[in-house]
Amino acid sequence: MRLRWSFLFFVLLLMGARGQSKSDNPFSNTEVLKVGYTTAPPFAVQEDTVLRGINVWLWKRVAKDLKLEYELLPMDFSDMLDSLETGGIDVSINPLTITSERSKKMEFTHSFYASNSTVAVAEISSFDKLLDFVRAFFNLNFLKGLGVLLLIIFLFGLAGWYFERKENPDHFRSGLHGIWDGLWWSAVTLTTVGYGDKAPKTRMGKTVALILMFGGLLFISGLTASIASGLTVNHLTTDPDSFNEFKERAVGSVKNTGTSEFLKSRFFQDLKGYNTVAEGLSALKNKDIEAFMYDEPILKYRIARDSSMSSISILPIKFDVQFYAFAIAKKHIALEQAISQRILEIMETEEWRIVLNEFKLNEL
User: Where does the sequence pass through the membrane (predicted)?
Assistant: First the structure.
């Protein structure tokens, strides 16, 4: 009798242990998890045969704690999203931005990092700045203004000479020499130089001078603004509020990402899509585009560790706040809940802060 009760107790104990194991691992009754990723330093860094990075570390820690078996599958970014939607893979460990559109197609774990998009531009060399300065003087608006300026000098110079030639022959001589005197006086007066070597004495001459002085002051101010605009039209500002100035320019981003969707929704006219960050930055370096927009930590990491990108800088412009998370196939809701809970627990540890600091990132 005792032997029978002992055997029954042993069976119950074994069943309880198995039940506990299943509750710890919500994926225990299925095959090995297929985990897709695309390199996105510093979150997923491929160094020869070694895969490391913040997301890689976090996933391995979660998988170990939940006793999940998995295989890592390198994939193209767009293919990874499509495969996740159709169930070809079970998990994506990329730093995916949580969006309403994506949430319809896949589950997201709890966010483990917050960031924003920013703007990368190629620095302009001194020679290019000189060329831009020279080109500004051939700007159509500037040439139009210059033509109007010469016309004003000619008309008012001719009028001044006409009214002064008889009463003031010492300053406004007769004939062609007198016309030149009038043009010289008009130019000096219009530009507010005022040498004083020539001055009107008649009532009509002084009236012409008054109109020229006040009208010329307004015109010169407008022409100066036109020149300044022509000299700066090809230069991007570093004003944090200058985000909208890029709408009319050729810009790039990674295709099918949160940043590219954000730019499309803001009506960017000339947006080019690239498969990777490296392709986009290369296009920027080669001047195929004027700016490349993407996630700030990824851009900074790439530029800082690639000496060929030393001519590219990040503007102090921040937009489109993003929350990163792992993405899970829709059929694995229980798995998503278990992973989310474990991510929250890991984020509360000092170890998580150390990992972020290792990759020069701030805590969420």
Answer: 142-163, 208-231
